[in-house]
Amino acid sequence: MRHVALVGFMAAGKSTIGRRLARELGRPFVDTDELVVAARGSIADIFAREGATVFRSYELEAVREALAGEPAVVALGGGALTYAPTRELVGERARCVYLHVPAAVLLQRLRRAHTVRPVLGEGPTSASVRELLQLREPLYRAAEITVRSAGRSRTLIAREIATLVRAAEQVAPLASATSR
User: Fold this and answer.
1) Partner of 85 at 20 to 30 A CA spacing, among 56, 62, 66, 176?
2) C-beta of residue 34 within 8 angstroms of C-beta of residue 50
3) CATH assignment of 3-178, given 3.40.50.300, 3.50.50.60, 3.30.450.20, 3.40.50.1950?
4) pLDDT in tens, the chain (180 residues)
5) For residues 90 and 76, is the Cβ–Cβ distance under 8 A?
6) pTM of the full predicted structure?
């Protein structure tokens, strides 16, 4: 059994769906952004004080911690996969699930949120969201599983992912047993 890493853009629902998915699978839930904040302070402050590169190194530490224990459901930050060492670690230790949400829906969610997203500034625009999504989406699309999550119940999305993860876990042991 491998970890399940939820990937996707900011406000895609990784944390919310991740908690439900963890309950469905009977696994612990870890939010790497929460680990960074607990250890280092707010993400916006880290970006302002130390910059994006230092933040990505802190994020790598959090991902390493999250993927060290028993198989868990792990919500990654929206930009986590942009840092090659994090991307490699996740690829080695987790089954990635991309929560696909259209840019227009992401923009609505980001505008409603009370969180400042350092890479988008205080007022995300359609252009800034689309531009950043276009850069990151190829990394997200490399995930083993992609689930369209806009306009659907979070509970149904979590159940769908749980079903897909269980099916993938059934196939993996069979594949290794037949290759001997």
Assistant:
1) 176
2) no
3) 3.40.50.300
4) 899 999 999 999 999 999 999 999 999 999 999 999 999 999 989 999 999 999 999 999 999 999 998 999 999 999 999 999 999 999 999 999 999 999 999 999 988 876 767 677 667 889 889 999 999 999 999 999 999 988 899 999 999 999 999 999 987 664 544 444
5) yes
6) 0.91
Query: Which amino acid does the sequence have at 22?
Result: A
Q: Is 41 left (phi over 0), alpha (psi -120 to 50) or beta?
A: left
